[in-house]
Design goal:
There is one protein chain. This protein has 406 residues and is an alpha/beta fold. A 6-stranded parallel β-sheet has the order 5-2-1-6-7-8, sandwiched between helices. A 3-stranded antiparallel β-sheet has the order 9-10-11, covered by helices on one side. A two-stranded antiparallel ribbon has the order 3-4.
Length: 406
């Protein structure tokens, strides 16, 4: 079977993560994705660790793509790219909002070459506003959109801290993916492409399920409190940690906990009589819960003892532990990518499963410019001599490890 996007050609100009993850997911859905890099390459190619000269971080976001390297700052490179645009369905970019125009590759230029082409753009703050020119790594977006504040809120007295995952990049990438799929569907009716533009900041605010709560200005510490910050993480008797989806300070969660503990008397304890009191005496309450949880040696045993279907007890695992789990094997949730010398990088498989189509990462990855010759010959019918001339002139280039050149 083919993938749902079989026959769709994507030119992926993106770098770092927000754009590359969208390109990778398009590839997972069956599109042919050609990563077009400048002579200095995607900056994540220089990240650590590395396997056979390939950055492991780069592999996860760029698996399944063929890689060419074109200098778009030169007229010959720009013209070569526009010839590729004539064959493309999607151009994906995540430069700052003015860069494509400065390169002479605005959507108006692309659509003049190919009226059916769709351009997907993801930037930190979107186009046409006072923040458009700001840098947009995930750490910056997290800091300025309330994510850092939310992560840090349940650590009073400590300085703010980051979540290690680059949520803003991934949210932005998934939102532009959704926009591109909608634009492809609309093109079926209209016959024309369009520009799709997404900001990482807005994507992060939408993905934060607590944004509306924060904006309400109301006290969200009374009654049932949504979100994950209120699920306690406690130590089991075997030294492992367990997350319990039961807020001990909320009225419902408190009743569940004291029933599980067999301590109805705690409801009459002045320290715990009200939610406000429980919040004020959180350390005392957590100490009582910790003593109880330490009598169990597994998350399933604790969950069974609590005995409420909405309360899920989950052992805190490392990523390698998840990859080694029975679930991961049954779901085929990870895929190994051979870098070229027999050494593999294990990456997460995409979550898509279709009843009538194939999907998933094609376990290949390219070095910068590795596929120059095959892509230009295949897509533009260039001869070896023409490709050699472009290479000699520096319009196209590559950076291959020594073992691949031999």
């Amino acid at each position: 079977m083919e993938g749902p996007l079989a026959g769709v050609l994507v030119l992926d100009l993106t770098r770092a993560l927000a754009g590359p993850i969208a390109g990778r997911l398009l590839s997972d859905l069956g599109a042919e994705v050609i990563k077009v890099e400048p002579p200095d390459g995607d900056l994540t190619r220089g990240s650590a660790p590395r396997v056979d000269g390939m950055a492991v971080y780069f592999v996860q976001a760029n698996v399944g793509k063929r890689c060419v390297s074109i200098d778009l700052t030169r007229d010959a490179g720009r013209d070569l790219f526009l010839r590729m645009v004539d064959k493309a369905d999607i151009v994906l970019e995540n430069y700052r909002p003015d860069v494509m125009e400065r390169l002479g590759l605005s959507y108006d230029v692309l659509s003049a070459v190919n009226p059916r082409v769709i351009m997907g753009s993801v930037s930190g703050w979107g186009k046409g506003n006072s923040s458009s020119g700001q840098g947009a790594f995930a750490a910056a977006i997290h800091a300025e959109t309330g994510l850092v504040d939310g992560v840090s809120r349940n650590r009073p007295g400590e300085p703010p801290r980051h979540d290690p995952a680059s949520h803003a990049d991934v949210y932005g990438g998934m939102h532009v993916l959704a926009g591109l799929l909608a634009a492809l569907y609309q093109r079926e009716r209209t016959g024309r492409g369009q520009a799709v533009e997404v900001s990482m900041a807005e994507s992060t605010l939408v993905a934060n399920d607590l944004t509306a709560v924060e904006l309400s200005g109301l006290d969200w510490d009374e009654g049932f409190r949504p979100g994950t910050n209120f699920a306690p993480i406690l130590e089991l008797g075997n030294g492992r940690f367990v997350s319990v989806t039961c807020d001990p300070e909320g009225p419902g969660g408190f009743r569940i906990w004291i029933q599980a503990l067999g301590r109805p008397d705690l409801a009459e304890d002045p320290r715990f009589e009200t939610q406000a009191a429980r919040r004020e005496n959180e350390a005392d309450l957590r100490a009582i819960l910790a003593e109880y949880v330490a009598t169990f040696d597994s998350a399933p045993a604790l969950e069974e003892a609590i005995g409420v279907s909405a309360v899920i007890c989950s052992e805190v695992r490392t990523v390698p532990e998840v990859a080694a789990s029975q679930w991961a094997a049954e779901r085929e949730a990870f895929v190994a990518v051979d870098i070229g010398q027999g050494n593999e990088v294990e990456i997460p498989q995409s979550s898509f499963r279709f009843s009538g189509a194939e999907s998933g990462a094609r376990p290949v990855v390219g070095f910068r410019g590795q596929h120059n010759s095959e892509v230009l010959a295949e897509l533009l019918d260039l001869s070896d001599a023409e490709i050699d001339a472009l290479t000699a002139d520096g319009v196209v280039s590559d950076r291959l490890p020594g073992w691949l050149r031999d």
